Amino acid sequence: MMRRTMIALVLAGALGLAGCATMPAKAPTEASRAGTVFRDCALCPAMVVVPPGRFLMGVDGGEKDRYEGPVREVRIGRPFAAGRYEVTQGEYAAFVNATGHVGGQGCNVWRSATRTLERDATLDWRNPGYGRPPRDDEPVACISWNDAQAYVAWLRATSGEPYRLLTEAEWEYVARAGSQTRFPWGEDPELACRYANVYDASAADPGIPWSATRCADGYPTIAPVGRFAPNAFGLYDTIGNVWEWVEDCYAMPYPAQPVDGSAQSTVGCDRRGSRGGAWRTEVVRQRAAFRGRDPATLLSGIFGMRVARDLPQRR
What would the mean pLDDT of 236-265 be, rounded to a whole number? Predict the structure, then answer.
């Protein structure tokens, strides 16, 4: 009963998403309708207003040495905005062109021939190792947590609005979008291909030592953003496509605080959280509660980002 009540509280704020606006006449505030879609500037990502609510974060157990609990109730007290899509190649290129930002060189990619993860010094975000040039409407990849921080700092300066990364709690909240099942769409991993670009039959590779789902989504590598069904909050690709850096330091198990949706930035800061899995990630790691943990300098061909933005309080 407690779980059903929490889900109802979350979904109540998200009703009416099908009628959301695409560009409000004025800047959104906490009073803006949940599901409203807006852009703060021509180069800014599309954002969605996310309602406040409560949810049960994590699961008891998880992979060995990667505990995903203890389960605790988190209360998101105010609306905020989250990226409708993962940050795209074109959006990130606009940032680099405007600032001259130079990230790290090289990218970690899986080599099927040797069944090893290797750093390729010839790769970077412009060429993350797909065997073809990335498209402007595909998620940017091969960016570090530090690169992601530089991008949101540029968004803040360009728009004058408080852009940032999602916290780990906010990420799980928007990915679940009212669900408490293993995956946001339910318990069955074979339903993934309607909702997410995961490691499936379209990408099956005998050089990868984990199993693909039997379903096929038609994308052997990365997919353009927005090609799969959105979740109940109107967000796309929270699961799959690329891992998404979050603000938090990585602590295991979860500390007792915070439980208000804010970032945990005191314990485990040698690593940063990453969430959501990617097109080459085994499906068990595509669960809403699964927690990545990586150095802030990591550059990987399956790591990207999604942004968040605080909303001004109602006057």
Answer: 97
